Amino acid sequence: MYDDAILWKLVDRELPPTEAEAIRAAAAKDPALKRRIDDIEAAKAGVLAGAPRPPRDFAARVAARASTLDPAPVLDLEDARRFLRRALVAAALLAALGLGAIAFDVVPDLLREPLQAQPNPFLPPPR
Amino acid sequence: MRCLMAMGQRAHAVTDRDLVRRMRDGDAAARRVVVERYQERLFALIYGIVRDRHEVEDVAQEVFLKVYQRITAFDERSKFYTWLYRVAVNAAKDHVKKRSRRPSVALDEDAGIPDGTPGPLDGAGSEETRARVREAIAALPVRYREVLALRELEGLAYNEIAEVLKLSVGTVESRLHRARQRLKRSLERDVRRRDSLEARGS
């Protein structure tokens, strides 16, 4: 009756309260539904389980490393690389689109045929 | 010095906004408060993506150092923690990428072996279930691990995850759904495999 996506939203507390209450009430009467919700809760709990705790002197270690930092803001090479990658992908896509348009003759023949001179409505017609 | 002592006495009462302003002024005590306030959450988040307990601390240190260096670039209109989590997610993803270029590294090599210091979520479910979930998550692509980890980190709402990852809420929902479907399939496969092994053994 309830699909997994709804049950995950229930466990994530992303459902409206009335809907959540209705499912919880149904689960109280239906052991199979209750088991499915329990499984999802176990899977949720497992996502970050096993994460290490920071060592007691972690803040001191960070402070020690921070004291050697250059106070001037530095250019972040990873951000720059990420930006460059995205720019290259965008340029490649544009080039591919342009080539495709030329190959399939999508672009109007503006370059091949000169625009015809339109008569100016404010001037008398040529004799 | 007076500032440092005052911070020590009422660090919990200082808002993130105040801490950001003090860090911009180079206040070392404010930096320390930020580390103490967020270190556990950052360790959990980074572990959720990197999936190797031994690598978490190095990445977490890098994250805090980046935050100190880039604090002037932080836009105060957004929440500090979403920005901090974004820096952490990017650092963890970069770390995974670099690791994948190195010759074979066993992921989560100590899964299932408690190290004596329980993590924040230990105690939930059986150790066997948690070990199976950990293995299944380690096998997921990074784009799924990051949404799962952010979702479980203090139950961040879908819109907050979207803000951290600079994605739409719809994309976050669909990635979460796909990640969980994969997780479910992987766990079901595992149960079937164990069942068939037990049936053969009996």
Structure in words:
The complex is a heterodimer of chains A (127) and B (202). Chain A is mainly α. In chain A, 59% of the residues lie in helices and 0% in strands. Chain A contains five helices and no strands. Chain A has helices at residues 4-11, 17-29, 31-48, 58-66, 77-103. In chain A, α2 (17-29) crosses α3 (31-48). Chain A is flat and about 95 Å long. Chain A starts with a helix and ends in a 24-residue tail after the last helix. Chain B has two domains: 13-106, Rna Polymerase Sigma Factor, Chain: A (Orthogonal Bundle), CATH 1.10.1740; 124-202, Winged helix-like DNA-binding domain superfamily/Winged helix DNA-binding domain (Arc Repressor Mutant, subunit A, Orthogonal Bundle). Chain B has nine helices and no strands. The longest helix of chain B has 33 residues, at 169-201. Chain B is elongated and about 70 Å long. At the A-B interface, α1, α3 and α4 of A face α3, α4, α6, α7 and α9 of B.
Keywords summarizing the entry:
heterodimer; A: 127 residues; mainly alpha; flat; B: 202 residues; Rna Polymerase Sigma Factor, Chain: A; 71% helix
Number of helices of chain B: 9
What is the CA-based Rg of chain B, rounded?
Answer: 19 Å
C-alpha termini separation of chain A: 83 Å
Within the CATH hierarchy, at the fold level, what is the topology of the largest domain in chain B?
A: Rna Polymerase Sigma Factor, Chain: A
Query: Spans of chain B with pLDDT under 50 lasting ≥5 residues?
Result: 109-124
Second rung of CATH, namely the architecture of the largest domain in chain B: Orthogonal Bundle
